[in-house]
Write a structure and sequence with these properties.
The complex is a heterodimer of chains A (415) and B (87). Chain A is built from 15 helices and 12 strands. Chain A is of the alpha+beta class. In chain A, helix 7 links the parallel strand 7 and strand 8. A 7-stranded antiparallel sheet of chain B has the order 3-2-1-7-6-5-4, with no helix packed on it. Classes of the chains: A alpha+beta (415), B mainly beta (87). The interface between A and B is medium-sized, with 23 and 14 residues. Bound molecules: magnesium ion (MG).
């Protein structure tokens, strides 16, 4: 049966979300209309550009480049910090609206969804008309814009949504592949990354059309099964279903670090800072539906000497307290009393929760897990500071350190 | 009307159906004097969910310095904060 799939993608997501939030709170400027970016923590000096406005794009500012470099390109650049709780809130408001149009919705990343519209044409109407309706509803109610791509599978829908931005609906139906997709440069094809594109170009493959018409045996020889997949994608072939519910995102790890505005010289304060990092990291870990089996801690002293320690765990974990327990023991192993300026934690080696077997020797974190779930829900609904640990009261420290992120699932790699 | 978005102290009540109604609030004038303002009439109430964040907007009428004025108040659900939004 021919399917109808829509891909909904928020235009400059982090930037628009922050812009709309500011407007709602009386800001006279709309970040979307001036050169602006969402950038990681600048104090640590390795903040990167997480999102940019269209005017910022005019200065050749690129997502992923260091904030200071972006500022060199545009001295008047407005830099705003990311607000992940706001972004989660926007993401769930988006999927709430989409649920009115189909019960098969896959949250692909924080700002992208697939919607299976197969069979719903008869009830709600033509896909293009309905996609325009969805866009309008999102713009009116939530204040930001999306692109919607429509086709018969997820790959083509996603490629269509990327065609021209912002606030547009596009189709790439199979009969439109040669006209709309093949003329595009090969690096625009989903999954052709920075590593693959130069190799393809070296083989004389410059457009998606070139790739689609390359001998499949040659691709198989050069790239193994990866080559077969690229060939299929270039020809618009993808059979993957819309997985309702969870996103099938691939992230390597989740990390967070902070520069303390004073030197930390005692263990209790260090623990508090670490805990504030653990709170946001473990919440993001749970939000993405993973458990981690590696925990790492890094420190930088007042003399800017860095060190880090990591530990492999027998059983993957996702509870705030479980992560914190490991973080504390790693910290104790490495800290010799030097004044600390910067602290970071990172979790990696992620597993989907479905495959986790509880070891008999580990503590039972079930109760803890339920508590975490409740707290997460309260924080998503009522804001990040709706519930905080009493140890942060009067401490002058922030209960959730949420400034920096290095590997948030902005981009996923499995359809 | 100009956007002010000034946090204000508010007395409000909840009606039986759960509707939240502003009654009286405190403002600081240009001489930093605190003045109380009675909400004489709520002309319009709207809900917005921009960026997924729920707020209620009230178009109100009050007498300020002997003059009848129309302005807007805003209430943010998750922070429980009232603002003088536009005047
Ligand atoms: Mg996007």
């Amino acid at each position: 049966m021919t399917r109808t799939i829509m891909h909904i993608d928020v235009n400059s997501a982090f930037l628009s979300w922050t812009a709309v939030h500011m407007l709602q709170h009386g800001s006279s400027i709309d970040l979307r209309n001036i050169p602006s970016i969402i950038g990681g923590n600048q104090a640590t000096r390795h903040g990167i550009v997480l999102a940019k406005s269209i005017p910022a794009k005019g200065f050749k500012i690129q997502t992923g480049e260091p904030v200071f470099q972006a500022k060199q390109k545009c001295p008047n650049l407005v830099v705003m910090p990311p607000d992940y709780f706001l972004y989660m809130q926007c993401s769930s408001a988006l999927s709430e609206i989409l649920q009115n149009y189909s019960d098969k919705i896959q949250l692909f990343s924080i700002d992208e969804c697939f919607l299976d519209y197969t069979g719903i044409e008869k009830i709600l109407g033509e896909p293009i008309k309905v996609a325009n309706q969805i866009r309008e509803q999102i713009r009116k109610e939530l204040g930001f814009t999306v692109n919607i791509g429509i086709s018969t599978n997820k790959l083509l829908a996603k490629m269509a949504g990327d065609l021209k931005k912002p606030d547009m609906t596009h189709t790439i139906y199979p009969e439109e592949i040669s006209a709309k997709m093949w003329p595009l440069p090969v690096e625009d094809l989903y999954m052709v990354g920075r590593a693959t594109a130069p190799k393809l170009k070296g083989m004389g493959i410059h457009t998606i059309g070139d790739l689609a018409n390359t001998d499949i045996e040659l691709l198989k020889y050069k790239f193994k099964s990866w080559g077969l997949m690229l060939h299929a994608y270039a020809n618009g072939i993808d059979e993957s279903p819309v997985h309702p519910g969870s996103g099938h995102t691939v992230i390597k790890g989740i990390g967070n670090s902070t520069t303390v505005y004073f030197d930390v010289i005692d263990k209790q304060t260090a623990y508090k800072v670490l805990l504030s990092l653990v709170e946001t990291v473990s919440m993001r870990l749970r939000f993405s539906g993973f458990c981690c089996s590696v925990v790492a801690v890094s420190l930088k002293t007042d003399e800017l000497i860095s060190s880090s320690h990591q530990k492999k765990l027998m059983t993957p974990i996702d509870c705030t307290n479980a992560v914190f327990k490991e973080v504390k023991s790693l910290f104790d192993e490495m800290w010799r009393g030097q004044p600390i300026r910067q602290m970071g934690i990172r979790v990696s080696d992620l597993y989907t929760k479905d495959y986790i077997q509880l070891s008999f020797f580990e503590e039972n974190w079930d109760k803890q897990r339920r508590l975490d779930k409740t707290i997460d829900e309260i924080r998503i609904k009522y804001g990040s500071n709706a519930v905080i640990r009493s140890s942060f009261l009067w401490s002058g420290l922030s209960p959730l350190e949420g400034g920096v992120v290095d590997e948030f699932p902005v981009m996923s790699s499995i359809l | 009307m100009k956007v002010l978005m000034k946090p204000i102290k508010m007395i409000a009540w909840f009606e039986e159906n759960g509707k939240l109604m502003p009654i009286r609030y405190q403002l600081e004038n240009s001489e930093s004097e605190k003045i109380s303002v009675n909400v004489d009439k709520v002309l319009l109430m709207q809900e917005e969910k921009l960026a997924g964040n729920k707020m209620f907007i009230y178009k109100c009428q009050s007498v300020l310095n002997g003059l009848e004025r129309i302005y807007e108040l805003k209430y943010e659900l998750y922070t429980c904060k009232w603002f003088l939004y536009k005047m």
